[in-house]
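User: Fold both of these, please.

Assistant: Here is the first one.
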Amino acid sequence: MAALILVRYGEIALKGKNRSYFEKALFNNLKSALRNFEARVIRKHGRFFVSGPAAAEDKMIDRLRKVFGVVSVSSVRTTPLEIGAIEKTALEIAADRSSPEHSFKVETRRANKQFPLTSPEINRLIGAAVLKKNPHLKVDLHDPSFRIAIEIGPEAAFIFQDRVAGPGGLPVGVTGRALLLLSGGIDSPVAGWMALKRGLSLEAIHYHSYPYTSLRSREKVIDLCRQLTASGIRLPLHLVSVTEIQREIREHCPPELGIILLRRMMLRLAEELSRNRSLQALVTGESLGQVASQTLESISVISEVTPMLILRPLLGMDKHEIVDRAAQIDTYEISIRPYEDCCTLFVPQRPATRPKLQRVLEAEAALDTAKLVTAALEAAELQIMES
């Protein structure tokens, strides 16, 4: 017997004349998410339905619940538009969940207004039938042990128990293309996830300092990228060595400006790569005031180096909020692996927290920035990440 999964979406239903564009994008993303399954995706009456092998139902639901734009998914049973058939299926569901301590609630959504019974009437009839067959059960409209949910469509009724929450948001790819500056820390993967949720298609750039940092640090970032592709998307990852850049900064520039100068170089690298890859914006994991390079003055001086739009999804979040989101999207345990990234190397005892642009420019004059950027990008590696 084939499985049938109902996929609901929310925000894109409000897009007016552009709705079909967003729905098509979500349709394609659903198909991509299920590319390793023998599944079929169809759209009916403001919903998507996925049919596939019953043995793979749980795995398909797990993949679908991670697709951006999806509000929730449910495993559903289909019945004819007859109250007797609906009652029979509802009783089967109740029998599966029935025990003396259980309570239940019947919820009906009647999209097909031609059906002769209203939603409250269906609720009462099905509820009464369930109680007659299972007199030990109780009705609880506020906090039931389980629900029997019914949707009356134009051609059939769909009955289900659970709604598995999805991330919501917009389908990946509908709002543009951006470059994520991905470190091995907690913050930037969360920023990337939030950018994906708003419909951005991402590429990622990671700066490393091998051999000063271990290959395990690089493996951690690769694993973070794989986690960001859990919804079935593909994510190009650019691995760029900044070892020589750090050596030059350490040798020729004031130590207290080292982090500021390195981050300016990172934005130069990101801008040049974005130009080559036709990317429209940069995404960073900066959170205002969290570290020395994230004061208003530091952010201003660092950002001055590029005219590109820089998106900072975490700017107003505190560390607890970011950690909670990282745990929710399963990146936290990867991020806390104890391997250093390039930004933890050569950190001065007293980094500048209120840098002046003129002083930074004077210090930077000691560097051949164009040559360093070109050399780093020419040696960059590209990996296409997918789950």
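And the second sequence with its predicted structure:
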Amino acid sequence: MHIPKTAGMSLQHLARRRHKATGSLELIYTLDKELNGFEDRPELQTVMGHFRHGIHKYSKRPARYFTYLRNPVDHVISHYQYTKDFPDKFEFLPKESQSIIDFAKGPYGNNLQSRFVSGITKHDTDLQVILETAKTNLAKFEVVGITEEFDLSLLMMGKTLNWNTLYYTRMNDGKAKKKEPYPSPKVIEELEDILKYDIELYKLGLEIFEKQKQAKPDLVKKLPHFQKMNSYFQQLNPTYTKFKKVFGLVK
């Protein structure tokens, strides 16, 4: 489950590299695809995208959920900036410019992480109901990653999925076209009040993550080496990609 602006694009490129077999990966990044689901074909292994909890109803096989949660205030600031850069991607945004407070109250910012994990699509549903449903669902997730702990979360996810090669390059990492000024302390306080449900869910996510971390000390020990090797990969990968393009190995 790729909640928008939680570093999921970096993970998507890794998934694409992992799933080279035709039909083994299904990407769901449009409302139409989310509403219509996917074909439960035998070769399908992974479904990834901007879908809410409940997408497993399109398969008769057991489903395992994975996601990343992000600090809710940072999440909304990043998402708001993204809508400023790419307004055409957000059909429900008002035509006129809006403040970050208005955005946080709207369909793309109002406790979005709780809404995704709950699976509840009706926007006017009581937020306490959404939160409690999200907490119940989150407790059943195979791995709950934390964006601020992306690498260790990735190692946990990779071990569970049996993905051996996890080196990645950062994608869509918030390089804004026109950077908005960071909100004032007063605005941050307002955001914290609006996002109190996501904040509570995030706290639960941190607790789950800490338990996962304690259960996998081998991955914690492996983390520094992984980060060192991945930094080399990030430096070399652009050159390697250019090389493949020159020789027609990729388009």
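Residues 173 and 235 are 16 Å apart (CA to CA).
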